[in-house]
Here is the input.
Amino acid sequence: ILSFNNEEEVKHVFGQIRFGKLKYCVFERTGDSTFQLCAKAESAATESDSWQQFLAVLPDDDCRYGLFNFRYTSESDNVERSKLILVNWVPSSAKIKSKMLAATYVRGVKSRLDAFG
Here is the structure.
């Protein structure tokens, strides 16, 4: 069963991202099915700056899961909206075992986060 090291903090951060107080968070695997929060941040000046800031905290050689609150304006009705995006970060230079585990756990991470919201 998948778990987070500090479940209450993760719930709190998830709520802050969902309601726009934080822009993103990043999780790393610390054990076979254990994860911890390793980064979080508020919005930058623009959506593009926030995305670049998010990408900058992701390592070049290890896998991570990121939750990003993406804001956009709908073309059909010109209304600002947001979507929570789960990013399964798997760089080509990561170890094969790490890549396999990232693919294995992505559904569990998504399900666990869905349970919070």
Notes: The mean pLDDT is 94. Residues 27 and 52 are 17 Å apart (CA to CA). The radius of gyration is 15 Å.
